[in-house]
Amino acid sequence: MNTTTLKGGLILLAVIGALTVFVFTQQLIGKVREQQRQKVELWVKAIKMLVDTENTSEISFLFTEIISVIDFPAILSDSAKTPLTWRNIKIDSTLSREAQIAYLKAHIEEMDAVYKPVEVRLDPSTVQYIHYGDSDLVKALQIAPVLLGAGVGVFILIAYLTFSYIRRTETSNIWVGMAKETAHQLGTPISSLMGWIELLKSASDNPERQAQIIFEMQTDINRLNRVASRFSKIGSKVAVSLECVAEVIEGVFDYYRMRLPQMGKNILLEVNDTTGARVQINRELMEWVFENLTKNGIDAIERKTGEIRANITVDPRYVIIDLSDTGKGIEPQHRAEVFRPGFSTKPRGWGLGLTLARRIVEDYHGGKLLLKESTVGKGTTFRIKLPRHTQQKEASKNKSHSYN
Questions:
Q1: Does the model's pTM come out above 0.85?
Q2: How far, in Å, CA of 290 to CA of 295, rounded?
Q3: Segment holding 14, helix H or strand E
């Protein structure tokens, strides 16, 4: 999942969550308001019963109980809206009676703007009204969506800034890595050519040795051409052909066998294959993958001797290549990050080789590249799974071969 999809998913999830809470809050407010209305109507009935009943002792008790459960502001007034009694309204006791009445009448106007006052008809000529407003709970619930909206807005802003930063960082890592990868790809054959030139100078009286050196120089020049060709393929569709996997890997191993003495190392490079498996691949790009994994293995072997083996097997769907080295291994905390752009444990590493290798295997060939296992002090095994010929044709129809 790319960062754009993840960003959109998180924002969508936040919006859905906010809408869900908003709808639930509105439903809860509706229920609380309905309960308030029912309590007011119960108060009206209690007042009428208190007026109509001669034995008022029990009714007075009931009336008191009803009044006690009213937890929202309410005022009982006469027909002229002069307050008679009230509940849950704080009044400054130091105010005069006239000031208190004026204060309560102002409250009545505010309440009537929200809720229609409930009529209490005591007899044909006597009418009172109950004016009421929202409880503290309703007011808090009304503010909640605003606070939630602000919170969601802040979350979306932080998410946007965070993912934008991550995207910029990844892009920067990729560009820096590409530049360094280019330098690395060009540097290996150029350094080799410089070495061959020095050897050529010292072999001026040995025509046979000169011919061998010239052949190796031509090999490095061909490699430079392949490097240019590889980079030209990035971002474009590539042609594939049926290739023997063992032969491709053996060609990469041959290249490094000739250059290991210059590195001061004696490393066994061996291909184990009893399958003769052939797959549809772009040879130049897959050579790039195997070169990268092989070079990583060589760098991981800190001793002068070691082994790098490519074991090839098949199952009904894939040709499987396990490329193992006897190097220092990868620390457990780093294993999940080896394919992340910019990650490297090398002092001068640029952290793009494995990223490009995985994209070549997965995006261009419909396969898989993964870290199979690694043991500190013993070595590392990377596994490449390439679809067998019939499956790969089908996969190529559904893959977009681009590095966008």
A1: no
A2: 8
A3: helix 3-52
DSSP string, 199-223: HHHHTTT-HHHHHHHHHHHHHHHHH
278 vs 236: CA distance, rounded Å: 24
Could you tell me where in the chain the CATH 3.30.450 domains are found? Answer: 3-138
User: Mean of the pLDDT values across residues 141-150?
Assistant: 80
> DSSP E strands: which ranges in 4-93?
74-78, 83-87
What is the dihedral angle through the alpha carbons of 258, 259, 261, 266, rounded to the nearest 10 degrees?
Answer: -80
Distance, CA of 65 to CA of 62 (rounded, Å) = 5
Which of these, 357, 297, 343, lies nearest to 323 by C-alpha position?
A: 297
Please calculate the CA angle 302-290-264 and round it to the nearest 5 degrees.
Answer: 30
What confidence score (pLDDT) does residue 53 get?
Answer: 64
Residue 356 · residue 292 · CB < 8 Å:
yes
Query: Does residue 43 contact residue 174 with C-beta atoms inside 8 Å?
Result: no
Is pLDDT of 350 > 50? no
- Cα–Cα dist 144/159, whole Å: 22
Superfamily name and number for 234-398: Histidine kinase-like ATPase, C-terminal domain (3.30.565.10)
The pLDDT score that the predictor gives to residue 145 is 77
Helix boundaries (H) for 54-135: 56-68, 97-114
Cα 109 from Cα 180, distance rounded (Å)? 75
Q: Which residue has the tokens 């060589």?
A: 298
Beta bridge partner(s), residue 369: 384
Q: Which DSSP symbol is given to 190?
A: H
CATH 3.30.565.10 domain span(s) along the chain = 234-398
Helix (H, G, I), strand (E, B) or coil at 123: strand
pLDDT, one tens digit per residue, over 163-199 is 777 777 766 666 666 666 666 667 667 777 888 888 8
Determine which helix (DSSP H) or strand (DSSP E) holds 380, and give its type and residue range. Answer: strand 379-387
Q: Does 3.40.50 match the CATH number of domain 3-138?
A: no
The angle subtended at Cα 197 by Cα 194 and Cα 201, nearest 5°, is 145
pLDDT tens digit string along 87-106? 888 888 888 888 999 999 99
Closest by Cα among 128, 55, 127, 48 to 86 = 128
